[in-house]
Structure formats: structure tokens, C-alpha cells
Write a structure and sequence with these properties.
Layout (H helix, E strand, L loop, with lengths): L3 E12 L6 H16 L6 E5 L3 H5 L4 H9 L5 E5 L5 H15 L5 E7 L6 H8 L15 H16 L7 H11 L13 H5 L3 E3 L2 E2 L8 E10 H4 L7 E10 L14 H13 L10 E3 L5 H10 L8 H6 L16 H4 L7 H14 L12 E8 L4 E8 L1
Parallel strand pairs: 2-3, 2-4, 9-10
Antiparallel strand pairs: 1-7, 1-8, 4-7, 5-6, 8-11, 10-11
Helix pairs in contact: 1-3, 4-14
């Protein structure tokens, strides 16, 4: 297997893009990644997306984007892993380069959600859950996370306010990210008075509906020196899975897919463990996911993920910097694109291009994309 690096990044600011369709968003991000790398070469593209067929009536999406960006006739495949589709696209691109199948591969994540009413989007998101035993009984994706948060509060004696620091941190960091959707700070009072969506989850616990696209250009490390930008090495790329339904797990508060994926990644990257990670881009679609991710990945003991946040240790100057450019909550969560944005933002940190939220002396970063209610976890560790 060959060593793999990222030589180009490109993104579209997350927003409500009324004037851009799926093909426009994906092609724009891809071309920006090539421009950043200083090349026009792409041997293959892998497109992470979850909802194009459900919301836009558009399957065969990767070929559509390859055509729009002028890449025909190269290999173009869509990658789907629910909310982890973007991370899975990066994984597919990494595997293609590492195996020698291709030399220059684009990982693209794209999602367009805002053209549709909330009810339709809620139904579409529920397809990431168990259709027979969860979604089929009317349990929404938000409700599943509300059940997890309620159970967490019961098991560990936490209160809803204990989760506020996750959202406050994400929004504070997003202020400094020109590509983020929610560039405004929030207070503990804002959090406490936020509208309930599915008790105890409120609007400020939840990532919002949005549109976006991001792209990365990968190539073998032994060819990366020919390109102008600093190359960031992908030191680990791992995937693990768990049951789709929460009720099938012996302990729903232990996300086994994150645990296994994280620890395989530490081993693959030659790290002793989470203490060697300088920043962590978690899949913070809901504040409860932030807590469970920190714990399953080994950054905090069971029940202490909220403590880590409350003590300010997840801030850019803390010992576990998280969501450093806003995360899914502050930057926005265009479902199938989020995993690519996460890796891209780790690249920005390791290049020293993260602006006011730059993590000092960042050398190793981890991005983790989660599908469903912890049913699949894709982990990437990057080194500069």
C-alpha cells in the first residue's frame, strides 16, 4: 500500500443556495480543489451523498458531477453511508490511491436540502434509521437522539444545561470561518431558552438544514512534492459498524463503531492513543453525539464528555480542541458533504490556515464522520 496525501482542498460556503443545483455545487468544489492543488488532473472521483435521490430525484450523481466539471470519461462513483457519506467518500478515494488503482483522486461531498419543506427532510433523514423498527413506527432521527440524551442524563445525573458548552464552542468558532452558515456567537441563556424540537433536544442542540459541497484532491506522497501546497498525509483511514437500531445494542450509550474505528486509526497512524491528537473534528450533529463521541473515542471517560466541554477543554486553546471551525452545528451540516468538510478543516489547521481559531502547533488531527445513530463511523487521522 502506498502512503497518501492531500494536495488540494475546495469548498463552497454553506448556505441556502437557491441559485445552485447539485451538479453546480459538486463541480464548483471539485474545481476549487484542483485550483488549490495547482493541477487539472483527476483520474477518478468519489462523491459522498445521502439524499439526492430522496430529495432531488437525482441518482447517478457522480456521473452528473463528472460531466458538469468536465471530467468525463473518468471513473465516477457515488458513495452512500447515511450521514457518514462524506467521510466514506474520502475513505474510498484514499483506498483507490493507496492501492495503486489511481494516482489523483477527488473526494467530493455534496448535499442540497433547502429546496424542500422540513417535513420532507425529516422523513428523508429517517432513512438513516431502522426502517422496520424505528422509522416505520414514526420515530424521527431527532427523537432517537432525544432518547439518547434523556438516557445519558438519567445514567450520569447530567442536566440539559450541561450540554450548552458544545453549542457555545461551535458557534464561537464559526464566527471566524467565512464558509460557515452560522457566524454568530450564542450564550448560555440563548441555549437555555431555545425552542424544544424533541424533548430534551432544542434547536441549539441540533445542526440545521443547509446546502454545501467540499472536495479534496488525494495523490501518492511520493508524487506530492511536485505541487505547490503543503501536503497533508492521511496517516489512518478506518471504518467500523454497529447495529442500525438503538434497541438492538446492549448499551446504547457506548458507541462501539466509534470506539473500534478510533482505536484502529490510532494503531494505523502509529499513535499511542487520543492523547497524541492535537484536534478532533467530531460529528456534532447533536450535542449528545459530541459527548458520546468524545467518550467512545477515548478523550473522556464514560459520563464525562459534558465535563470536558463545560471546563472549556474543547476550545481551540484547550487540551482537546473540537469543532475548531464551527463543526456541524456552527458551520452547518449538509449531510453527505459534512465528512469532507471535516477532513478539509483538519487540513486547514495542519497547514496553519485556520485564522483566529488556529490550534497552536497542530501536527496531528482527527476527523470522524458518523452515519445513523452511531451505526457507522469513518475515522481519518492526518499529519502535517
Amino acid at each position: 500500500m502506498r502512503d497518501v496525501g492531500i494536495i488540494g482542498i475546495g469548498q463552497v460556503p454553506i448556505s441556502e443556495h437557491w441559485d445552485l443545483c447539485l451538479r453546480d455545487l459538486g463541480a464548483l468544489a471539485a474545481l476549487r480543489a484542483l485550483e488549490d492543488a495547482g493541477t487539472d488532473r483527476a483520474d477518478a472521483i468519489f462523491v459522498g451523498n445521502m439524499l439526492a435521490g430522496e430529495l432531488s430525484g437525482q441518482e447517478n450523481l457522480a456521473t452528473l458531477i463528472a460531466d458538469s466539471a468536465g471530467f468525463l470519461p473518468i471513473e465516477a462513483l457515488r458513495i452512500e453511508a447515511a450521514c457518514a457519506a462524506g467521510g466514506a467518500a474520502v475513505r474510498a478515494a484514499y483506498t483507490a490511491v493507496a492501492s495503486g488503482a489511481h494516482d489523483f483522486v477527488l473526494a467530493i461531498g455534496v448535499e442540497k436540502m433547502t429546496d424542500h419543506l422540513t417535513d420532507g427532510i425529516t422523513s428523508a433523514l429517517a432513512t438513516a434509521a431502522d426502517a422496520d423498527y424505528e422509522a416505520g413506527h414514526g420515530v424521527s432521527f431527532v427523537a432517537l437522539n432525544a432518547l439518547l440524551m434523556r438516557r445519558y442524563m438519567h445514567e450520569y445525573g447530567s442536566t440539559h444545561e450541561d450540554f450548552a458548552a458544545f453549542s457555545i464552542n461551535s458557534h464561537e468558532n464559526a464566527v471566524h470561518n467565512p464558509n460557515a452558515m452560522y457566524r454568530m456567537p450564542i450564550t448560555a441563556e440563548d441555549y437555555a431558552t431555545s425552542t424544544v424540537v424533541s424533548d430534551p433536544i432544542t434547536i441549539l442542540d441540533s445542526a440545521a438544514i443547509c446546502d454545501g459541497a467540499a472536495a479534496l484532491l488525494l495523490c501518492p506522497m511520493d508524487q506530492a512534492a511536485a505541487f505547490p501546497r503543503q501536503t497533508i498525509e492521511i496517516a489512518a483511514s478506518t471504518v467500523a459498524t454497529d447495529t442500525l437500531g438503538l434497541a438492538e445494542r446492549p448499551d446504547p450509550l457506548h458507541w462501539g463503531a466509534i470506539d473500534v474505528s478510533s482505536h484502529h486509526a490510532y494503531e494505523q497512524a502509529g499513535l499511542a492513543g487520543p492523547a497524541d491528537i492535537d484536534l478532533y473534528e467530531a460529528h456534532d450533529a447533536f450535542t449528545i453525539v459530541s459527548a458520546l463521541s468524545l467518550e467512545a473515542a477515548g478523550f473522556a471517560r464514560r459520563g464525562e464528555g459534558v465535563t470536558l466541554a463545560r471546563e472549556g477543554r474543547i476550545a481551540p486553546d484547550g487540551d482537546v480542541p473540537m469543532s475548531t471551525l464551527g463543526g456541524l452545528k456552527g458551520r452547518g451540516h449538509p449531510i453527505g458533504a459534512s465528512g469532507v468538510y471535516q477532513v478539509l478543516e483538519v487540513v486547514q489547521q495542519l497547514r496553519g490556515e485556520a485564522g483566529p481559531t488556529q490550534v497552536k502547533n497542530a501536527k496531528v488531527g482527527m476527523a470522524q464522520s458518523v452515519g445513523g445513530s452511531g451505526s457507522v463511523a469513518v475515522t481519518h487521522i492526518l499529519k502535517n
